Amino acid sequence: MKALLLAEYKRLELTDLPAPTPGPDEVLIRVAACGICGSDVHGYDGSTGRRIPPIVMGHEAAGTVAALGEDVRGFSDGDRVTFDSTVYCGGCAYCRRGLVNLCDDRQIVGVSTPDFRRHGAFSEYVTVPARIVYRLPDELSFAHAAMLEAVSVALHAVELSKPASASPVLVIGAGMIGLLTLQALRAEGFPCVFIADLDESRLRLAAQLGAAATFQASGPDLLAQVLAATNNEGVNLAIECVGRDETVRGAIDAVRKGGTVTLVGNIRPEVTLPLQKVVSRQIRLQGSAASAGEYPRAIELLSSGAVQVAPLITAVAPLEEGPRWFERLYAGEPNLMKVVLTPETSHV
Ligand SMILES: [Zn+2]
Ligand SMILES: [Zn+2]
To answer: Model confidence over 187-236: pLDDT tens digits?
Structure first.
């Protein structure tokens, strides 16, 4: 099968690999679309240590069932499906409590670390356990379905932020996850959502996607604008989708006393925390990792149009163009959001 292999750091090769055969509890999926995730781009140069070559990356995918392991029930050849990026064991204490994103044996599709290597979906075929596979409604295109993983991440952050009481909410960062979080919040009953970023074009998109107000600011300027928009009170909830010193501080500054800051972004592994402010104003800091059970809801919201992903897709391109897109994304070219590769172009 055709596959895009990270042969060594920063070198992607279009190559031929043997197609995988599904284990007893696995499904073989013919990949129609697979999105390039920010974590793939960050992992590509070795800086995260989570894409150790040789590895076929890609965990945001959709396609059709091509074969089933002998123990798999409930799917048939040709079913249109997507899958969760988290491969959980189903048996550990966390899994049994439904916290599958915290599974002790958690693996990620298309990721390799010193502990595991699991080839992903930048290839014609991929195998994944049946328990992480979800059937897609006919009206959802494969390219859009490849965005479900990111939508689930946004929904999980919103879910964990409850019982934060209602609007107003501030989202910091109008990138992919920020824009999906904005839409997820609105779909889940937070009508008044502000969003902050420094990039004007992203904020324009945020306004189209339903932001009540957009703030092109950070630091004290951002705080001043948030206070002006909230009767000097601040927001009830801030969801931080960047993960740097100034943006985490911005989120903490923006919430009112007793408010919640949900942390999704982690572009930096460590930040400075304004501890006294968090303690004395009794702010709840809530981390959010991947998703746990949000796929069905994500499929619903995408199908109904409550969450729109079309404006977030920069390009849908054949697998052959993958290396070039990785270079452009890695170079940080402006105005690029999601790039979706199509190993089996005729399916999209
Ligand atoms: Zn991802
Ligand atoms: Zn587990």
So the answer is: 999 999 999 999 999 999 999 999 999 999 999 999 999 999 999 999 99
The angle subtended at Cα 146 by Cα 144 and Cα 151, nearest 5°, is: 85
Q: Strands 284-287 and 255-263, how do they pair?
A: parallel
Counting ligands in written order, which one lies closest to the CA of residue 176? 1
- Of the candidates 47, 50, 84, 40, the residue with the CA atom closest to the CA atom of residue 176: 40
Report how far ligand 2's centroid is from the alpha carbon of 38 (Å): 25
The 10s digit of each residue's pLDDT in 249-307 is: 999 999 999 999 999 999 888 999 999 999 999 999 999 999 999 999 999 999 999 99
Q: Looking at the DSSP assignment, which residues form a beta bridge with residue 342?
A: 318
How many angstroms is it from 109 CA to the middle of ligand 2?
15
Q: Which ligand has the minimum distance to the alpha carbon of residue 88?
A: 2
pTM of the predicted model as reported, rounded to 2 decimal places: 0.95
Q: Is the peptide bond before 168 cis (omega within 30 degrees of 0)?
A: yes
CA of 257 to the centre of ligand 1 (A): 33
Angle at 135 between CA 133 and CA 137, to 5 degrees: 155
